[in-house]
Hints:
Elements: E1 18-23, E2 29-35, E3 42-45, H1 57-60, E4 68-72, H2 90-105, E5 114-119, H3 121-132, E6 139-143, H4 156-172, E7 176-177, H5 181-189, H6 198-207, E8 209-211, E9 220-222, H7 226-235, E10 252-256, H8 267-278, E11 281-284, H9 292-295, H10 297-310
Parallel strand pairs: 3-4, 3-5, 5-6, 6-10, 10-11
Antiparallel strand pairs: 1-2, 2-4, 7-9, 8-9
Helix pairs in contact: 2-3, 4-7, 5-6
Amino acid sequence: MSTTSSHSSNPGLPQPxxxxxxxxxxxxxxQVRRYGIGKGPCLLITHGNxxxxxxxxxxxxxxxxxxxxxxxxxRNHGRTxxxxxxxxxxxxxxRDIGSVQAALRSHLAPGQKLVGxxxxxxxxxxxxxxxxxxxxxxxxxxxxxxxxxxxxxALYDAMHAFEMRLVEFACGRPDRFDSAEGMVSYxxxxxxxxxxxxxxxxxxxxxxxxxxxxxxGGGWVLSCQRELEASIYLAALTLDLWPSASLVKCPVKxxxxxxxxxxxxxxxxxxxALAREHGYAYEFVPQTGHLLQVERPQExxxxxxxxxxxxxxx
Length: 314
């Protein structure tokens, strides 16, 4: 069992109007932070594997002009206290999303609409929750889920190679720093982050580390242990989740990385294929990679808002 942590090393973040803890089905606890309570439909937003929601501030903060926001970090990520390898799998992550959704609904005003906004691994978890556990939203927005098609599909080998590269990357990257700014410097030097907004590099670097415990030798460590991050990349290959949009009992849109951008990971092409083959509303954001929300946040917001207007959510 873990307890909720409210740690943040970034004093520039807006302060929530309300926070509440959610007890997940296996006893782990995480915290939901609410901003702009009652302003409009509520967007429940979380992050991708190895990241943290505070790092996506360039995407979500401008949405406060029109929406209530509810933000949370997935287990073993960001501000959520570490809980170890037990439960760190897609089945439990999908259940976690259901637990957070149910707890948040109990805090919303009668009739207030609730939209799920997810990225990467959390998008896959939310899709699993919707398809296999009956999760229903007023709308569901999935930013570039790492959709792995069935073995034998033309894109399977590319996605398999991509996930295996990520496993190797996660296991080999630095996981201990002398200061919270150490991860900021790492992102600044990384070619993979070259299209990120400068503010996002700072926010994400500060969001994905926490003070190390005495057992961990102090200093600053990755909030998501690198081996846990790697386990989710590996699990994507056996998740067997390439479903028809008709199985999602609510409006859903895939917003992908640019499938035509040279050197891009195959997630953009895979999501385009999933949409074409299985009937999803779909749009890609030109000149973006897998971290599209921190590369071109305005365009990502516009793609999401167009769908929400179409569905009558706003």
